[in-house]
Target: Integrating conjugative element membrane protein, PFL_4702 family
Amino acid sequence: MLKCLVPLKKNLRDRASQRLIGLLLVLGPSLAFAELPTMEAPSRGEGSGLIETIKNYAYDGGILLGLLIALLSFLGVAWHSLTVYADVQNQRKTWKDLGAVVGIGALLVVIIIWFLTKAAAIL
Model:
């Protein structure tokens, strides 16, 4: 007789835990009185209207994109330099090849940063 009550007891416990979890999911967000952080103004200021504010945020996005391009170019040069260094260690290339790759790569990164600086002034 007790064996037939065990599934019923387990079923009631499962339903009670499901209702408790549901109640916590419904009331949980309202109990956490956290405030969202305020949005920071763009680097050029908020501007006099909505369009000018959007332009200022777009400018900040363009600067961020330029930094990403500079980072990717630096990482590309570093990766290629490491592969050439591995080829030097395996005696497939010479130290002169590594010097050329590092020198041209450094010049390329400097030129990219210079162009991005000029582009930021145009924006």
User: Anything to note?
Assistant: The CA atoms of residues 3 and 14 lie 17 Å apart.
